[in-house]
Amino acid sequence: MELRCQRVKESEMHIPHYDNNNKPIVDRHDSRVPLCFFNIVKLNTGETFISQVEGYETCLVPTTGSIDVSVAGHTYEAVGTRLHLWEGDPEGVYVPVGVAATMRCVSDQAEVFVAGARHDEVYEPFVVREKDIDPVQYGSDDTKTHRKIKHILGQNPGGRVGRLLVSELFTVGAGGWSGFPPHKHDTDDLPGETRHDEVYNFRFNPEHGFGAQFLTREGEEYGEVYHIRNGSTILLKKGYHPCVAAPGYEMYYFTILAGLSQRPLIQNFHPDHAYQLETIPGIKDMIAKFK
Question: Distance between CA atoms of 215 and 50, rounded to whole angstroms?
Fold first, then answer.
């Protein structure tokens, strides 16, 4: 499995699932998405892991299980309440730039996402509990765009954050589109668009489900399509990037957005499809939640 990871070329934006042994999947200064950092940490009862990322602020989010987190003189107990990610809301801990955070598994097992954004200012740590999650649901079954977003570090975080946005996205029901109409955020061109690098990690219910990630650069008529499966990681630096889940499967993806010059996200919708913003119920409220 390590050999497969080594074979990932610099130009490829899809990393299939592999056992990363608690080592970063997207490391600091990755040339594909240099603004982002991503790790998956798996622990058993009583095991500990120290997360310290120089030059990046991070957020620790248990997908399953529960952890105690000690950071900068603060201790946050029993962060994470889910047995699996398809039930309940997430929790997380914001970790300042370059600061060491020790996580200790206090459940039978825990899987923790470590999301990061490049930044240079150091703020205070804080915890995000279930009650702090900012949810939004939009779309419809008729438009095949019905989905739910749970903002962990969203529009109004529980403390000061530099460039990092973190959320969980779910298709509602089985099958359907997400990230539609096609949009991009690869150029700092205010007020119409911001540069945000982005990383996704996908999960499916049942686990043998699958989907497709589209990626089309500006000015191109045809783009790349990636076959995504449980555990796939997608890196997005440039281009329009909708995705779709196959019929009969629920799709989840953990989302890391890292801004170059500001934290609020401004999306630029493809001119051929932007009119569909008027046909999808609640989508404008969703867009506002990222600003």
Answer: 35
Q: How far apart are CA 137 and CA 181, in angstroms?
A: 16
Alpha carbon distance 239, 105 (integer Å): 38
SS3 category, 2: helix
Token pair recorded at residue 36: 């982002």
Contact of 179 with 243, CB cutoff 8 Å: yes
Q: DSSP assignment of 195-236, as one string?
A: EEEEEEEEEEESTT-EEEEEEB-TT-SS-EEEEEETT-EEEE
- What residues form DSSP beta bridges with 241? none
Q: First vs last Cα of the chain: how many Å apart?
A: 39
For the chain, domains (ranges, CATH) are 24-120+133-289 (2.60.120.10)
Per-residue pLDDT tens digits of the chain, which is 291 residues long:
444 444 344 348 999 999 999 999 999 999 999 999 999 999 999 999 999 999 999 999 999 999 999 999 999 999 999 999 999 999 999 999 999 999 999 999 999 999 999 999 999 999 999 999 999 998 888 888 889 999 999 988 888 999 999 999 999 887 899 999 999 999 999 999 999 999 999 999 999 999 999 999 999 999 999 999 999 999 999 999 999 999 999 999 999 999 999 999 999 999 999 999 999 988 888 888 787
Please state, as a whole number, how many other Cβ atoms lie within 10 Å of the Cβ of residue 247: 11
Give the residue from 65, 60, 109, 69 showing the smallest Cα distance to 85: 65
Structure tokens at 83: 């047995």
284 backbone φψ class: left, alpha, beta (φ>0; ψ -120 to 50): alpha
- Please give the backbone phi and psi of residue 249, each rounded to the nearest 5 degrees, phi first: -130, 135
Only one residue has tokens 């970790």, namely 95
Type of residue at 155 = Q
Work out the angle at residue 267's Cα, subtended by the Cα atoms of residues 135 and 230, and round it to the nearest 5 degrees: 60
